[in-house]
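We emphasize that the prediction below concerns an isolated chain of 166 residues; any contacts that depend on oligomerization or on bound cofactors are therefore not represented. The input was used exactly as deposited, without trimming of termini.
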Amino acid sequence: MFLRAFVVSLGIVSGAGFSQFPEFSQQYLQRLGGAVEELSTVVRDFDRSAATFGMSRHKALDEMNGSPFLQRRQADLRRTISRYEELNDAYSALRYAGPFTRFYDLHFMFDEKILAGTWEDYQPAVPLTIEGGLFAIFGALSGASAASVIGKLFRPWRKRKKPTAA
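Result of the prediction step, given as a token string:
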């Protein structure tokens, strides 16, 4: 009896959790898009400044030396450009993807800052979409399966009644 209650409970909890993925991934994508847009402004401005002097981005970065301040600024810009390129690649991969593809491409959704900001502002919602319902079913089945496996691991130690003679 306890095992059935455990299986059903974990199924319900994991179903509710998985049903939130489509909305959470949409909010993550919106934050990611905002970050890419802001970083692109910085990168475009730097590229324009470099082009004014007939230099490529990499040549302009290499020219930034001579003082500790310029070297520090060079390192900052290299990090900013690198972050922009990484986030832009992730955004390009996720932009037109639906929730199922986003789940498959989950590895594009692990930028710590964006993930933390999305999680901080996220408020669970009742999933009224087909995708939300399918994720709920998947989560419920996954949770129930996990609970069943966990329950069966503890079964050998359960006391069994001896058969009685008729």
